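Hi R.,

Here are the chain sequences for the assembly we discussed:
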Amino acid sequence: MPLSRNEAETALRDISTAERASATTYGYRRASPYLVLWGVVWAVGYGVTYVRPQYTIIWPVLVALGMIASFWIGWKSDPAGKVDCRYVATLLAVFFFVMAVFAVLAPRTNAQISAFFPILVALFYSLIGIWTRGARMVFAGVVVAVLTIVGYFWFPQIFLLWMAAVGGGALILGGLWLRSA
Amino acid sequence: MEQPDAVIHQPLRLKIMAALKALPDREQIEFVRLRALVGATEGNLGAHIVTLEQVGYIDVEKDFVGKKPRTRVRLVRAGRRAFENYIAYLREIVEAAPPPENRR
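And here is the predicted structure of the full complex:
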């Protein structure tokens, strides 16, 4: 017996709900290792900069390692084994955006630079969450942004240590939280 | 109007197919994750997975991670096509029949 209009509409709604839930958890699963990875990068980078401020080389090294590891994660998790060139384009766009912002609004202190990147990262997580209906991603982004601002204004003496423990920790926990979805 | 695909036309199998279709081509999902997504019991999901596998809509891969058994499922091309046809069938019904308030 053919379906009624109501039955067909209900089935289409069920399909849409199941597809959305599946796509969201898939997105969480893909994003999770990146959050954990960059959480570790932050923890090490800010931690070393706090203990040994003269070791400025640590950041370029960590960022380079983080990017290589990110590409490796992307390549490993893509069943087709291809690297999407949009990731490269996104990294280039972000790089030129940061250069342009620093040229126009040059930061005056190291703390400003240290706060800027986490806020930028938090913005990306929130935007990704908004566009993929991933409430957990939005939450992770908001938490990182709020913790960064709190540390910057309320704990300036230990800001780098704060970012190592709280910022890096929030990213690691956020990544594990996404994986559990 | 033709009849719906009897295999897909079952509430839980419909959800399973929808959840699998949302994944990229060739992407697998673990049985435990799929169970959480569609809200089914282990036995019930297992039975429907077997049905979908027997008609060639999905591919089931079983292996071990350490000593723990792992079952992963993915939609194959025939399943994707059948599911798309099923959605087209549902849309055809919705578009062909007038909305309830316009009926006399």
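The two ends of chain B are 22 Å apart (CA to CA). Residues 11-96 of chain B form a domain with the Arc Repressor Mutant, subunit A fold (CATH 1.10.10.10).

Let me know if anything looks off.

Best,
T.
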